[in-house]
Amino acid sequence: MDPLPNPAPLASKLRNTLVRYHSIGDGEWRVAKKTKDATVWRKPSEEFSGYLYKAQGVVEDVTNRIVDHICPGPYRLDWDSLMTSMDIMETFDENCCVMRYTTAGQLWNIIAPREFVDFSYTTSYEDGLLTCGISLDYGEVRPNFVRGFNHPCGWFCVPLKDSPGHSLLTGYIQTELRGMLPQSAVDTAMSSTLANFYSDLKKALKT
C-alpha cells in the first residue's frame, strides 16, 4: 500500500492532464453512444489498454449546483444509481480529499461490484468548475470487491454563454475495472453508464 501523496503537485498534474484531454480535436474521437441527454465518444487511452471516454450534454442548472451533485459529498449517493457506498478517508482542504466508494454489479453481474480509492480535486475552470480524480493504491481492499482503478478522470462544467441557467457538462472517464472481464462487456457498460449518468443527474437536479 502506498503512502498518501502530497496533494498540491498531484492536484496540479491532474488538472493539467484534464485540460489537455479537453483540447483533443474532434477528429480523434469516435461516437460510442448517443441519447437525448448526452453523447459519448471514445478513443484509445494513453494510460492503459482500454479507452478514454468523453461524454457531453447540456444540463439545466447552474454550474455550482451541478458540481455539488457530482463531487464527493452527500448528494452523490442519493442519485447515482451505480454508487453503493462512499466515505471520505482523508480531507486535505475543502476542495481536495481521498474517498473510497463502491459500485454495484453491472450487466447481470458479469461485472461484479467494484471498490475504488480516489484522490479528488475541484477547482475553477474558465467561468465554471472542474472536478477531477485519479485512483490511489491506498487502504485495504475489502472482501467481496475487486479493486478498480480510475486513470485521470474529470468533469468540466461551464455556463452556456447565451443561457446562463444551463451548463455544458463534459466528462472524461477512463476506468480500469480489473478482474477477469471481456473487454467488450466493459466497453458496453461504460458507454451506457455515462449516458445514464446524465439522465440520473438531470432527474436529481429537478427534485
From TrEMBL:
The record, for InterPro entries, names: StarD4 (IPR042555), START-like_dom_sf (IPR023393), START_lipid-bd_dom (IPR002913)
Q: Which GO terms describe its molecular function?
A: cholesterol binding; cholesterol transfer activity
Cite the START domain residue spans from the record. Answer: 10-207
Q: Which domain of life is it from?
A: Eukaryota
Question: Pfam families of this UniProt entry?
Answer: START
Gene Ontology CC terms, in alphabetical order:
cytosol; endoplasmic reticulum
Q: Name one GO biological process term.
A: cholesterol transport involved in cholesterol storage
Annotated protein name in UniProt: STAR4 protein
> What organism is listed for this UniProt entry?
Erithacus rubecula (European robin)
Which lineage ranks, top first, belong to the organism behind this chain?
A: Eukaryota, Metazoa, Chordata, Craniata, Vertebrata
> Gene for this protein?
Stard4
